Amino acid sequence: MSTLAHTMMTAARSADSGLAGPGELDRYPYAEAPVTERLGAPSWDGSDPELGRVGRRAAGSRGRGLHGQLVQQLGQMIVSGDLGADRPLVPEEIGQRFEVSRTVVRESLRVLEAKGLVSARPNVGTRVRPVSDWNLLDPDIIEWRAFGPQRDNQRRELSELRWTIEPLAARLAAGHGREDIQQRLSDMVEIMSHALGQGDALTFSRADAEFHSLLIQVAGNRMLEHLSGIVSSALQVSGGPVTGCDRPTDASLGHHARIVDALGAGDGAAAEAAMRQLLIVHPEVERVVPAPREH
């Protein structure tokens, strides 16, 4: 095993306990509020004591401190519909509800505004914006949607987007024979092979995400490269339509290896075909990607 492969395997095993263990690909579980709680006007005075103090919330914080945790909490509440446009988001109320300072609240709302989730106007205050204004390609919003009430739509849309992006990226990458990238892709396949034998789903998924990110980056198209974060986010979101990337299997490993071989041979058509095979949804899943939709 190469040094890079060994290092990545070791790092995955010593990962922060907040991440998923083997077989647990939903790394950031989303606690959906019951539908009955979402029907009325949003209220800061919920019955869940764990929502009362942001500093106590570890799940989903990703080690970002109070500011990051508040962004995470408010973002989930907005995306789930618990916070709607029917009332302004008053910083003083948020600060009291989550026991954080004005500075933390102000900076958190700025982050949410940059994501298109809220807008602040004089004499109007800060309000939730319509979904059409959200930056739906933002990795955080992808995650919040994927673990909220819109989970099915989000996962379908991600699968369809990947089907559009990645076969083209594989074809283009075959024309850029960079030996360093080729070696790194081979390393990722080696890591996945070892992880599959060990039943280590976490290491497999991390190597898988690295594989696809590298492939898009080497495609030589800067606009496609800009979308690599979306693919990484999609790979972190499990539980939707299960593609070859979502499930560590010998077949999945074989498709990854064929992509690497095709890239090494400079065969764009073969690389594209292997990627399409990898992204095909398993037959036991009802919705096949890409699936034509009636309008």
Description:
The structure is a single chain. The chain is an all-alpha fold and 295 residues long. Helix content is 55%, strand content 3%. It has a two-stranded antiparallel ribbon with strand order 1-2. The chain is elongated, with a radius of gyration of 21 Å. It starts with a helix and ends in a 16-residue tail after the last helix. Mean pLDDT is 75; it is low at 3-8, 12-42, 44-63 and 282-295.
What's this entry about, in short?
The chain has 295 residues and is mainly α. It has helices at residues 3-13, 35-38, 65-80, 91-98, 102-114, 139-146, 151-173, 179-198, 201-217, 222-226, 228-236, 250-265, 268-279, and strands spanning 118-121, 125-128.
Mean pLDDT: 75
> What sort of overall outline do the alpha carbons produce when their principal axes are compared?
elongated
The value of Rg in angstroms is: 21 Å
Distance between the termini: 51 Å
Please supply descriptive tags for the structure shown above.
295 residues, mainly alpha, two-stranded antiparallel sheet, disordered C terminus
SSE blueprint and pairings:
Elements: H1 3-13, H2 35-38, H3 65-80, H4 91-98, H5 102-114, E1 118-121, E2 125-128, H6 139-146, H7 151-173, H8 179-198, H9 201-217, H10 222-226, H11 228-236, H12 250-265, H13 268-279
Antiparallel strand pairs: 1-2
Helix pairs in contact: 1-8, 1-9, 3-5, 3-6, 4-5, 6-11, 7-9, 7-13, 8-9, 8-12, 9-11, 12-13
